[in-house]
Amino acid sequence: MADKKRVSNDDKKIGAKIRLLRQISGTTQAKLARHLDISHQQLQKYEMGINKVSASKLIRISKILNISIYMFFDNSKLAEELENNSINFDKSALRLMKLYTNIESENLRKLLIFSANSYVNEYKKT
First vs last Cα of the chain: how many Å apart? Predict the structure, then answer.
């Protein structure tokens, strides 16, 4: 029988997503922990994938951060890259991500991505 306390790779990915989504929202560990009625150390253990997060905590986290619960279960490579520390975000990148997520128009989002790609490609040429 499997150890019920063992943390799986999926638990680690969810923890990494909690951290990223918390940072994008501009919420500190201390503030999120207060809203969850847990210590910031416990939240840190969730984010690092040391402890499992219950379904009810995930629901509360999604409500506090004003995101869909499905954000934690997306099968993208993002959480893997975060877990492997292959993505690092500075404050400006996190701010840009937060602003981007507040854009409701899909067309405006596509235009912004197109513009950024064009700028990066042009910048690489010079």
Answer: 60
